[in-house]
Structures are given as C-alpha cells and as structure tokens.
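I am still getting used to backbone structure tokens and would like to learn alongside you. Label the sequence line and the structure token line clearly, so we can match residues to local backbone shapes. Go ahead whenever you are ready, and we will take it from there:
>
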Amino acid sequence: MSLTLLDWRRRVAALYADVRAETNSVAAHRHWRATRDGLLRDHPDSPVPAGERATYAGAVVADYDPALRFELDVDTHVAAAKLEVETGTDGLVRFELVGRLHVPGVGDLDAWWLASYGGGLFVPVKDGSAGVTTYGGGRYLLDTAKGADLGGGDGRLVVDFNFAYNPSCAYDPTWACPLAPPGNTVGVPLLAGELTG
C-alpha cells in the first residue's frame, strides 16, 4: 500500500467536496483547475512523468461554459451489460451498466458501476473532437471510486463537461486506463474541460 497514493486520493476527494460546496460554478472550476495543476506538478503519485513535473505548466483547460453543465436523471431502464477492461496494475476491471444519461444537445452517455470492492460510478466521454483537441481515448466526467464526483441527488447526477479530465494514460502510456466504450461516445465536439493543447 502506498501512503502517498492515499494522500492523493484524499486530496482529490477534498477537491471535489470543495467543488460541490461552491455555489458559483466559475469559481468552483477555477479552484478545480488550480488544485489539479498543483497535484499534477508536485504530488509523488501524479501521472505526469517524474522527469517532466518540474517544468509542467499545467493542464490546458477551456474556459468555463455554463451551457455545458447539466443535472440529469439517471435512466435505469437499460438492458444489462458488462464492461471488462484489462489494466496493467489492477488486472481485469469489471463494470456493470446501471443507467443512461440523456444529455440535451450532446447525446446519451452510459453510467457504469465498478463491480469490485468499494464500487463507484464511472462516466467517461469520447466526443467529436477526440484525437484533435481532446484526448483520443476519451476523458472522465465522473469516477466516484477515485473521488471525482460532482454531486446530484434523488437519482440525479451533475454532469458538467467543464470538469472533464484526461485519464492517467494521456500523461504517461505506462498507465492502462479504462477508456470510453461505444455507449460513451458522442458525435458532437465538446470543447470544455481538459484539452490536448
């Protein structure tokens, strides 16, 4: 067990708690950007390769667009489905489909449950700009097992594309990450959140 990884997880969970508590979305986004940049640059468990951290200038993140924030019902009337992802460090990671998010003007996104100890909700997205201005494998919107939780209540989730972020493998190919499956791929470009540059 790595106590530095425990610290990373605690800091990420605290960051998202701050985001959920902040009533001004622009201020929450500004705090998220600054805190993430500090973690990516300075933390020993950053996915940024150790030799690049001293000169790391921060993630390229689009300005906040309030039109890309939604609070959505989770449509649980979906056929059972499973997703299995082979990773280098965690072995085979299994997910179960728990619902679908119908995002106005964007399309549908599957909501997956991590089917292992502790569980967690996982919602990645691969948009129409993937491989051009956003990471080609898609980005993460929610990954509650790792603290990335924007909130919601009564069967609803806050889905804010301004907080989409790259998986660890976007920084260093030695990481193996679950990427967006077909049910999390949309045709529209989403120029919000973390970009590729």
Remarks:
- The radius of gyration is 16 Å.
- The longest strand covers residues 91-103.
- Residues 3-184 form one domain.
